[in-house]
Design a protein that fits this description.
Elements: H1 2-12, E1 20-31, E2 41-57, E3 62-67, E4 73-77, H2 92-104, E5 112-118, H3 128-144, H4 150-165, H5 172-179, E6 184-189, E7 195-199, E8 204-210, H6 220-236, H7 253-273, H8 280-293, H9 300-311, E9 316-320, E10 327-333, H10 337-352, E11 357-361, E12 368-370
Parallel strand pairs: 3-5
Antiparallel strand pairs: 1-2, 1-12, 2-5, 2-6, 3-4, 6-7, 8-10, 8-11, 9-10
Helix pairs in contact: 2-3, 2-4, 3-4, 3-5, 4-5, 7-8, 9-10
The protein binds adenosine-5'-diphosphate and magnesium ion.
Amino acid sequence: MTENRIAALTKALDGPDGLRFVRAPGRVNLIGDHTDYAEGFVLPMAIDRTCVVALRRVATSRVRARSLELPGRVDVAADGSDDARAVEPRWGGFVTGVVQALAARGGRVPGVDLAVSSTVPAGSGLSSSSALSVALTMVLGDTTGLELDADDVARAALDAEIRATGVPGGLMDQLTSVHGVADHALLIDCRTLAVEPIPLPRELTVLVVHSGVPRTLAGTAYAERRAATEHAADRLGIASLRDANLRDVQDDAFARHVVTENARVLDFAAALRAHDIGALGPLLLASHASLRDDFAVSTPELDLLVDAFVAAGALGARLTGAGFGGCVVGLALEPHAQRVLERTVEQYRSASGREPSAFVVRAVAGAGTVEP
Ligand code: ADP
Ligand code: MG
């Protein structure tokens, strides 16, 4: 699959001369949402849906880019002087965002032609934006001579996304894209950025269904939740809700979600290490209930989709990502996985009148260069 895209990108850039390729995966978060920006724990995995970017240096002071999936040509200044929020086509904001993030770290991007191709569905909650930003950061970072380690790449890519969108996201998506390990989930401590790859039991299949409702977090609701958790930490006189315990947050539903979700992530990680598959489903369902009732980021469709997963025989399911639309992740035992997925889709379609899209995802290695 990557071979086909390498060929298509090579064609888009009129031949192989001087081309370099980087690929970066999207991600699905198994458990731990709205905990990353509170310095908490998350347990995502990088998935076999990836963004590939091809680059050639050219003797101009422009960064030009095209996408094999989205229309329009991006043509922005290599010195980052464009306004990332105003670049057209809109996805070009990520290009300028990356150029600026590298400039902020002392890196000067030369003139380049870029071509992008991604199999991460855009706007679904599988973080197509981070796959794009991480791939761009690596491939453009290389041209600057900056020595960026994996965490530097993740931070610069997040910086770029914030410049492009104005949404103050956490670092989970970018860290997952750089640190992914095949057949492993990643327990990430968002305070220390320590990453522990944990093997996924072979008999588990990870299923993702998009509700057919686009995420409309549009920054505002997300930023409000984030601000509320930061205020809660201030009131408690602590650096972040990572340091709170349940007693401290009993009367604050938003803060309570963060504290209980952190505990669920650690329990889930422990269950994976102990091969205690029976413990996983209830933790997913408890996470969904907390995101729905305490953190108030679910929607009627996401709730229906979780119910459909359970009725179809999944071990458990929960909304994944920021909420307000997007995807639900479910776990099923391998021999039943395809049936569970089909039944979930049927049941959800008839209950909601929406058209879902379904994916079976596998955990893959993190971002890196691709030899053509
Ligand atoms: P998500 O990250 O959940 O997929 P976002 O709204 O954060 O959703 O990011 C989607 C945006 O990422 C798109 O609107 C586009 O700007 C950019 N993007 C994703 N895939 C591509 C692609 N193949 N080519 C160009 N831009 C892309
Ligand atoms: Mg995104």
